[in-house]
Write a structure and sequence with these properties.
Layout lengths: L1 H33 L5 H7 L8 H8 L11 H7 L8
Amino acid sequence: MKRSRLSRDILIILILTVITIFLWIGLEVVHILQNKDVPKVLQEQLEPLDPKIDTEVLNNLSAKNNYTKEDLPVNQKEILTPTPSPSI
């Protein structure tokens, strides 16, 4: 009697689990099919790239200056200089 009751309970749990899985999958499919809008950012990323290399931009990159701490104004040095944190 006890074995029959246990197998019946397991069967009910299995059936409810399968129903839940199918419902979940179905709702996800409906959600995906209804949400067809492509975000604007993604649309911009999907645009094809220009195959020509802009050499002017490359030349500008190589002409950029590299600055040291001495080249920066005084207030910039203070920003870049690490300050010690207080010990607890």
